[in-house]
Amino acid sequence: MRTRSVFIILFVLFGLAVWLGISYGSVSIPFRELLSENNRQILYLRLSRVIMALIAGCGLSVSGIILQALLKNPLADPYLLGTSSGAGLGAVMALLLGLSGFFLPFFAWLGAILSVILVLYLSRENTTFSSQSLILSGVIVSIALSSVLVLILSLSPNETLHGILWWLWGNLQILDLRLLVFVSFFVLCGTLLTFFFSQDLNAISLGEEEAIHLGISIESVKIILIATASLMTASLVCICGVIGFVGLMVPHMMRRVTGANHNLLLPATCLASGVFMIVCDTLSRTIYPPIEIPIGVITSMLGTPVFFWLFKKKRDGI
Amino acid sequence: MKLFTIHNLNGGYGKEAVIRDFSIQINQGDFIGIIGPNGSGKTTLLRLLTRVLRPHSGKLFFEDKDLTHLSLKEFCRKVAFVSQDIPIHFPISVFEMVLMGRTPHLKRLQKHSHKDYRIAEESLSKTDALHLRNNKIDELSAGERQRVMIAKALAQTPVLLFLDEPTSHLDIGHQIQIMNLIQKLNRHNGVTVVLVLHDLNLAGEYCSRLILMNEGNIFREGTVEEVLTYQNIEEVYKTIVVVKENPISQKPYVILVSGEK
């Protein structure tokens, strides 16, 4: 009963968010006129951003859920495995080589994937990965790659490189629809696959040995899910940059609503993060037009107070 | 009847073997206690037998089937494990926890059926914990928590139940309560029990067979009277003890002797 009302509320909010995302933008057009032939372009543009926001929200929060469950660390976020700095470095490399257009996201994607592989390689113990060494290697690789990134930026006279810093704060502008299709494919497959593993995630949240006693082949599940989270985050980061806090905050908030059962947590989190991202993106477009505020700034600015409030409520035992 | 046969088992962490050349046969209806000093390999042995660790070598047969041909999921429908203590960092109700025991019986994406709910309820009532079903796990006392964890294992409908020091955090009243419960499951529900115990007297009181481990191998195996002798215990534990007879149960009773008078 409670579950059903939670999902009804989430669906209503989702509908409202989509309507909001389509109706508002840097130019204000009444909703009815938006549907007319002349404004088709604007409608498509806004629709593609709404879809991008939904996809980014889903991908980031599902990756967050995977890592939080596998690493048994509630503070794990999707960029923990080095994807953000790897992607940044990859993008800078592409610009340094004078490549642009399609190569930029491709290099960013490659950088993200390579940094995950490096993290996994460093944290490997025999055939398994312990959560502590994964977290530690993730932090080390991120710091190392970021320092190389900043070094290149500070030495380079090339002004276009500095745009990278802005790009790293995230934006949902779609330069090429094919990229949207590409990232949607990864995120949809990854989300469905993760949903397929929700029983395993439930068992794993009791601990790895407990999961084995419940018949979960932990090693293969771990590899599949880490690969899924990495691929989703990498494909997102190379197109929308780094969007902080969504992957951390939305799963946290939803866990308080639906409980720790991943069967419910996963779909609820996908809806809620979609709503959150669409609202944040609409804000980023409309607060100060025609300038777009990077969406990562909005998510973090909105997210931090909410997060603190939740923590305080929890501490006060409510 | 043979349930679980272990031949020349070698295994441990990484390449180092903790358990060496271990062989034993677990028969249906057994109530086996594994005792031994710290570091003698008791917990490692349980990890190998419940497939948490992969053996380096050795042959394991469960119900006459080679364990390498039996999937982990199929194995966990028949064999359950109650660990010493698992830290739970998130709110989960007792009933949800016990339902987790149904996991090996579910297909992917399959929802819990009425049968699963019924089995979880029955497991809770077998462990006298049905009244706790709506409580949160982290609100329970140590004794209640242990009963819930045993109920979770029972929800797997096991024929063989492993327990790692089920009484370690409990006072004597709750120790006896848990041990009586395990004995009831063994006698009336036909569950074969293998448990690691630190308390030699609890082991002597309840078990039908004892395995005394030392340095990764069996030091002595047999009935309580054969294993709990002062010679065996003094040699393995390197301490002086007196073994008397419990006046009620006539089982051997181990008394510790302090160093100074």
Give a nutshell description of this structure:
The complex is a heterodimer of chains A (318) and B (261). Chain A has 318 residues and is mostly helical. Chain A has helices at 2-23, 31-34, 40-70, 83-96, 103-123, 131-155, 163-168, 177-196, 198-204, 208-213, 218-240, 246-258, 262-286, 295-315, and strands at residues 124-125, 128-129.
Give the count of helical stretches of chain B: 9
SSE topology string of chain B: EEEHEEHEHHHEHEHEEHHEE
- Strand numbers in spatial order across the main sheet of chain B: 6-7-8-3-9-10
- What quaternary form is this? heterodimer
Largest sheet, strands/sense/barrel of chain B? 6 strands, mixed
Overall helicity of chain B:
25-40%
Secondary-structure topology with pairs:
The complex is a heterodimer of chains A (318) and B (261).
Chain A: H1 2-23, H2 31-34, H3 40-70, H4 83-96, H5 103-123, E1 124-125, E2 128-129, H6 131-155, H7 163-168, H8 177-196, H9 198-204, H10 208-213, H11 218-240, H12 246-258, H13 262-286, H14 295-315
Antiparallel strand pairs in A: 1-2
Chain B: E1 2-11, E2 19-27, E3 31-35, H1 42-49, E4 57-62, E5 65-66, H2 72-76, E6 79-82, H3 94-100, H4 114-126, H5 142-154, E7 160-164, H6 172-188, E8 192-196, H7 200-206, E9 209-214, E10 217-222, H8 224-227, H9 230-237, E11 241-245, E12 252-256
Parallel strand pairs in B: 3-8, 3-9, 6-7, 7-8
Antiparallel strand pairs in B: 1-2, 1-4, 4-5, 9-10, 11-12
Helix pairs in contact in B: 3-5, 4-5
